[in-house]
From TrEMBL:
GO molecular-function term, one example from the UniProt record: ubiquitin-protein transferase activity
GO biological process: glucose homeostasis
Domain HECT span(s) in chain numbering: 175-414
Protein name per its UniProtKB record: HECT domain-containing protein
Top-level taxonomic group: Eukaryota
Keywords: Transferase, Ubl conjugation pathway
Species, as recorded: Seriola lalandi dorsalis
Record carries keyword Transferase: yes
Length: 414
């Protein structure tokens, strides 16, 4: 109940444009419009006086955490000390208001500034003619790659600046467009970030992959990290992508990125949900696995294999040439057929091993979603700009909110 109450208070305070510290307990109320939110549904049967008393307790707890406790805590998690304060705080992060987390985070970011006013900001020069007309002939011509090349020789410490504030704030680097004279840094910097996000979510760059569930009209427009082995050059680009996430946080500029929840879970080092995350990312594979798990007899399994064989032009069983079969292979998110075990192309799915096959397909997809190699590079880049221990306090949704801002509202027509 407390976690649901914190989520509701976060939303209420955004609506009222105030912080939870300034919200009076008697201003906490629920109405019928809140029933649509499943996270708040558990609060509907709780007496309003009980909610207000509970909020007053959470409010006092958050004020104490913000003022006295969190500034003194070592937030870095270690697997060795599972009962450390950081580990316990990670388990209890659902009790901390988002505004409390942001306040503490901003203090740390301002305390970890490494480039002072005495040092000139790095400057990069971008050629707009490389992307004229919106058509990018080569990935090397993108703003993303142009910036990555020029900033590769700049120490990450020079990109760690204080939080942006004022009319013309200090950003991690200045941008100059070839043939253009721009006064001030804010407009060109924001345009650069907008263009880079547009490039990342297009075919111009291969770092992100459209969500496979889009084929079933689910999560259209969302992206995940492309799950494939990466070269050193691609690792450097992913590192720069992580740096851009940190730079945007320090600049307080929301990035127009639409990434699937599994990406943000990986970024804050949270485990994936075996059911929910697979269904969100690839509902077709999720349904495929469920069909094998729910098969009740051999006849039904044979009919299922026949249906799959007809769709994928699979072969016949070596034991019974007239009977179609499935083998221990599956298609990756990038469209390549891989063996799920050694010699999988020669191993037929049978009644005895169907559950093993279903687990192997599920495991393949979850490994692709975790994408440890790529996520490690992104986190390394992010960690060079902001302290990664700050992510201990944030949920995946809050990390997305801190990086990308609030999702735009769809206005009804007519």
């Amino acid at each position: 109940m407390d976690v649901a109450l914190v989520q509701y208070i976060n939303r209420l305070c955004r609506h009222l444009a105030i912080t939870p510290a300034r919200l009076h307990p008697h201003e906490v109320y629920l109405d019928t419009s809140d029933t649509a939110d499943p996270r708040v549904a558990s609060l509907l049967n709780v007496p309003v006086e009980s909610l207000r008393l509970r909020f007053a307790l959470l409010q006092s707890l958050n004020n104490t955490l913000e003022s006295f406790f969190l500034p003194l805590v070592e937030l870095r998690q270690t697997h060795t000390y599972q009962n450390s304060i950081a580990a316990l705080l990670c388990e209890a992060k659902g009790l901390i208001f988002y505004d409390t987390k942001v306040t503490v985070m901003n203090r740390v970011l301002n305390a970890t500034v490494q480039r002072t006013a005495d040092h000139a900001a790095p400057e990069i020069t971008l050629d707009p003619l490389e992307i004229v007309g919106g058509e990018i002939r080569s990935s090397e011509n993108t703003y993303f790659c142009q910036a990555a090349r020029q900033l590769s020789c700049v120490p990450s410490s020079q990109l760690c600046v204080k939080l942006a504030s004022g009319g013309d704030p200090t950003y991690a680097f200045n941008i100059r467009f070839t043939g253009e004279e721009v006064h001030g840094t804010s407009g060109s910097f924001r345009h650069f970030l907008w263009q880079v996000c547009k490039e990342l979510q297009s075919s111009a760059l291969s770092l992100l992959l459209p969500c496979p569930s889009a084929a079933a009209n689910r999560n259209k427009g969302k992206y995940i990290l492309t799950p494939c082995p990466i070269s050193y050059a691609e690792e450097q680009l992913l590192h720069f992508f992580g740096q851009l996430l940190g730079i945007a946080i320090r600049a307080d500029v929301p990035l127009p990125l639409d990434l699937l929840g599994s990406f943000w879970k990986g970024l804050v080092a949270e485990s994936l949900d075996l059911e929910q995350d697979l269904q969100e990312a690839d509902v077709l594979t999720y349904n495929y696995v469920k069909k094998f798990e729910n098969v009740s007899d051999e006849t039904e399994l044979e009919a299922l294999c026949a249906e799959i064989s007809s769709q994928h032009h699979s072969g016949e069983s070596p034991d019974s040439p007239s009977r179609p079969c499935c083998t221990f292979t599956y298609i990756t998110m990038t469209g390549e057929e891989v063996e799920l075990c050694q010699g999988g192309r020669n191993l037929t799915v049978s009644w005895e091993n169907k559950d093993v096959y279903a687990r192997a397909v599920r495991s393949l997809r979850l490994r692709e979603l975790q994408n440890v190699e790529c996520m490690t590079a992104v986190r390394a880049g992010l960690g060079s700009i902001i302290p990664l221990q700050l992510l201990t306090m944030l949920s995946p949704l809050e990390m997305e909110l801190r990086t990308c801002g609030f999702a735009p509202y769809s206005l009804p027509l007519g």
